[in-house]
Amino acid sequence: MELNKLFKKSELIPAIIQDSTTNQVLMLAYMNHASLEKTLETGETWFWSRSRGELWHKGETSGHIQRVVEMYSDCDDDTLLIKVEQVGVACHTGEYSCFFNEILTK
Amino acid sequence: MELNKLFKKSELIPAIIQDSTTNQVLMLAYMNHASLEKTLETGETWFWSRSRGELWHKGETSGHIQRVVEMYSDCDDDTLLIKVEQVGVACHTGEYSCFFNEILTK
Fold first, then answer.
1. N or C: which end of chain B has fewer CB within 10 A?
2. CB B47 within 8 A of CB B31
């Protein structure tokens, strides 16, 4: 697949990270072309940190890396869905998923 | 929950839409404060269409509405995860999920 077409509209696109076993959504982060290339090369997720303005190898400090299992783009080719094997937890707070703030629950 | 804090960094935030039964990720779209309010009021998803520059009631034309079952924000309060009951299909192409372009598969 030609990766350039993913970055036609924007240099940064959202990547949804999903647990490949349970399908739980773990986090959302942003990728640029370089971080997507690093992800495909290494088989682990790399993002672009908007706050630090640099490439970010998820888990480099914490050890909580994400091994890529499957990857898809959407119908508009401007969003990624990445299914991963999560080592440890996804969230820096210690929660397994970053989506723990309840706005509306069953 | 105070909704304003979700829009501190940006007027538009990504909303991940997930099937509440299967946990399949269906699509990603953007919400502003007004579309989030409409979503909470009506119990169906409303987004901000970046291409058309207007509020977008998902399924208004196609009938493929999304009934909200659960909603969460992430640890940074800048992304939403919304679990829905999807009527019909989520994607305008006729696919159930928008994420059908394979970049890497098992």
1. C
2. yes
Give A64 to chain B, closest Cα distance, Å. 17
The answer to whether the Cβ–Cβ distance between B74 and A27 falls below 8 Å is yes
Sequence-ordered alpha helix ranges (H) in chain B: 33-42
ipTM exceeds 0.95: yes
Q: Is A88 left (phi over 0), alpha (psi -120 to 50) or beta?
A: left
Helix or strand (DSSP H, E) at A33: helix A33-42
pLDDT digits (tens, 9 = 90+) for B33-89: 999 999 999 999 999 999 999 999 999 999 999 999 999 999 999 999 999 999 999
Contact between chains at B75 and A68 (C-beta distance less than 8 A): no
Residues 6+ apart with CB under 8 A from A37: A3
Strand partners, B81: B16, B72
Pairing of strands A80-86, A13-19: parallel
pTM for this prediction = 0.98
DSSP assignment of A54-93 equals EEEETTTTTS--EEEEEEEE-TTSS-EEEEEEESS-SSTT
Query: Which of B56, B54, B52 lies closest to B44 in space, CA to CA?
Result: B56
Least CB–CB distance from B102: residue in A28, A68, A72: A72
